[in-house]
């Protein structure tokens, strides 16, 4: 039997990270074609107090791996956040995709009722059931960062559209 939490998380993360890979590939090609320093795109932001593209991709992938790991009841893999190039970001997304696609449905069997405890960048912990964690916390944050990465590139003139963002389903 397939877990509803598995279905609401792993295929969604896989699809959207695939879309993010496509968007990043188009951004790199755009930079090459237009003779733009790739770092100009990697460091682009929508607003000065927001993360640049590079960090948006890191955080989106962090949500995909950490939410998936917690729901599956396994340790969250650590990544170094040392990416500097489009190739580095692609490799990071490949690593996260390999991790989440290595999780199986059985690991999510009791995920809806599993207690999830986080400390989202602060000493104050938050407690969720798995169901509220995925729907009220994990997916909204993941979509915020994937959408912002897309918006940065679209705003920067990269020719991407909704089909690129959504990915293959």
Task: Describe what you observe in this structure.
- This protein has 169 residues and is mainly α.
- The protein has a single domain (4-166), classed as Four Helix Bundle (Hemerythrin (Met), subunit A).
- The protein has helices spanning 4-34, 38-42, 53-72, 86-101, 130-155, 162-166; strands spanning 115-118, 126-129.
- It has a two-stranded antiparallel sheet with strand order 1-2.
- Strand 1 (115-118) and strand 2 (126-129) form a beta hairpin.
- Helix 1 runs parallel beside helix 5 (130-155), helix 3 (53-72) runs parallel beside helix 4 (86-101) and helix 3 packs antiparallel against helix 5 (130-155).
- The longest helix is centred in the first third of the chain and has 31 residues, at 4-34.
- The two termini are 21 Å apart.
Q: Give the distance, in angstroms, between the N- and C-terminal Cα atoms.
A: 21 Å
Query: Percentage of helical residues?
Result: 55-70%
Q: Can you tell me the CATH architecture?
A: Up-down Bundle
Assign the CATH topology.
Answer: Four Helix Bundle (Hemerythrin (Met), subunit A)
- Average residue pLDDT: 95
Query: How many β-strand stretches?
Result: 2
Task: Summarize the biggest pleated sheet.
Answer: 2 strands, antiparallel
The H-and-E topology, N to C, reads as HHHHEEHH
- How would you write the strand order of the largest sheet? 1-2
Helix/strand structural class = mainly alpha
Could you list the spans in which at least 5 consecutive residues all have pLDDT below 50? none
Radius of gyration: 16 Å
